[in-house]
Design brief:
alpha+beta; OB fold (Dihydrolipoamide Acetyltransferase, E2P); 2 domains; four-stranded antiparallel β-sheet; about 45% helix; about 20% strand; rod-shaped; signal; coiled coil
Length: about 170
């Protein structure tokens, strides 16, 4: 049973109810991200396998966030490459005693800042990709759908205590 709870936590799914999550024999599931339910792909009584898509949120905004993050990453990569070229040039001029220490230090600082911006942009892209993937609610284990309180058009506010969208009972219960 603890492995199932760990699987739910790893999947970013919410388990609700007092006491052990399995005491009632059902798990209430919702998405980790906010959005509007676009489609429900299961109905009560339906058996599902682990990984089955149960419902999808509208992904329009999440896809736009991913495109924005990819553009930010591309811009940061170009800035980092430019800063590295400038750093190499500044170090070469400094070694030939053509430029000052302050010019060399400024180029080193710019390169470090560009690398930090690139790392941040890459992290934003990873987050955007994860959020897009989490717009699909998947079964965390083999089970039977007990109820589907979420319908197309249901608004999910993941930052607040969201209501369950699908109630799943472990197989064999």
């Amino acid at each position: 049973m603890n492995q199932r709870i760990a699987a739910l936590a790893a999947a970013g799914l919410i388990v609700s109810g007092a006491g052990p999550a399995w005491a009632a024999g059902e798990v209430e599931l919702t998405t980790r991200v906010s959005g509007v339910v676009e489609s429900v792909l299961v109905k009560p009584g339906q058996s599902v396998r682990k990984g089955t898509v149960l419902l999808r949120l509208d992904r329009t905004i999440l896809q736009a966030h991913l495109q924005e993050a990819r553009a930010e990453e591309a811009r940061a990569e170009a800035d980092a490459a430019d800063a590295e070229r400038e750093k190499a040039r500044a170090l070469d001029l400094y070694d030939r005693t053509v430029s000052s220490t302050s010019e060399r230090d400024a180029s080193l600082l710019r390169a470090a800042r560009a690398q930090a911006a690139l790392a941040s942009a890459r992290a934003h892209r990873v987050i955007a990709q994860k959020n897009l993937a989490d717009a699909e609610l998947r079964a965390p284990f083999d089970g039977v759908v007990s109820a589907v309180p979420g319908w197309p058009g249901t608004v999910v506010a993941a930052d607040c205590q969201p209501k369950p969208l699908v109630v799943l009972k472990p197989a064999g219960r």
